[in-house]
């Protein structure tokens, strides 16, 4: 594995003056030699011709060593295929003109899984005929742990932290990040149920834990590519259309059962409280049959989903 090495280039302002002096000094030298020859001086020698040509050539060659690096950008330097280091500082620099300088961005980037990126296209003349673009993310269809088909997508935020690994360990680190993120998301969705009632981790009920697991899984796959995952969050989660209606009915039924359970628990507590108050205050004495009838009536009143119609007994409690 290739490790990143920092390269310290020299400032480009002094070499810029030298290159300008070589470029303009060579023709001036040749012009002066011709002028002195025409005014009766010595003839132009071989050195008077070769020197200006070499000066002009060295000045032009020196301009290939200049580079300006913006914030959050870097240059990876290669000399005939040999990695010499990475320039991580910002500013105007000059390096060996024979260095191959490959630009790489260190800025924070993000993308949504399921999106399709279209690379930049150029014609034979080198002109850009189609700019690089990315389509909107399309949710991935995958089965959860219980086998239910679901649609899921995530937004991944990442940045390059090792320029050498990003360029030399993988073929295309941007495409590598997209593919591995999609694979990690599908693997995560298949390990957890969409929803759960027994307090286990589910995709819908434990969003923070699931997102942290997703970030860890993606980071584990991208360590070799010199990429750091800053954040990974689920942006879309839903049942697949073919089972969405059935799952909605099941969720509604579960909600109704849970609500009825709470109502029954509360009704039983209220009936128990009413009987205890009647007994403590000696308001009325009820035999077991009348207590059962009273409990039944109270439960019907408290648990019914419609308003009950009261019936007033104008006789004794036994008639």
Query: What is the alpha-carbon Rg in Å?
Result: 40 Å
Largest sheet: 4 strands, antiparallel
Quote the CATH topology of the largest domain: Tetrahydropterin Synthase, Chain A
Helix/strand structural class: alpha+beta
Question: Under the CATH scheme, which class of the largest domain?
Answer: Alpha Beta
Low-confidence stretches: none
What overall form do the CA principal axes indicate?
rod-shaped
Count of distinct strands: 14
The arrangement of helices and strands along the chain is EHHEEEEEEEEEEEEHHHEHH
**CATH level-four homologous superfamily name of the largest domain:** Band 7 domain
Fraction of residues in H or I helices:
40-55%
Strand content: 15-25%
CATH architecture of the largest domain: 2-Layer Sandwich
Distance between the termini: 95 Å
Q: What does this entry show, briefly?
A:
This protein is α+β, with helices and mostly antiparallel strands and 319 residues long. The chain has helices at residues 13-38, 46-62, 163-168, 173-191, 207-222, 241-280, 288-303; strands at residues 10-11, 66-69, 73-79, 82-87, 91-94, 100-105, 109-112, 117-118, 121-122, 128-130, 133-134, 140-143, 149-160, 227-239. The radius of gyration is 40 Å and the shape is rod-shaped.
What does this structure look like?
The structure is a single chain. α1 runs antiparallel to α2, α4 packs across α5 and α6 runs antiparallel to α7. The termini are far apart. Helices cover 44% and strands 22% of the residues. The longest helix is centred in the last third of the chain and has 40 residues. The protein has 3 domains: 95 residues, no CATH class; 131 residues, Band 7 domain (Tetrahydropterin Synthase, Chain A); 59 residues.
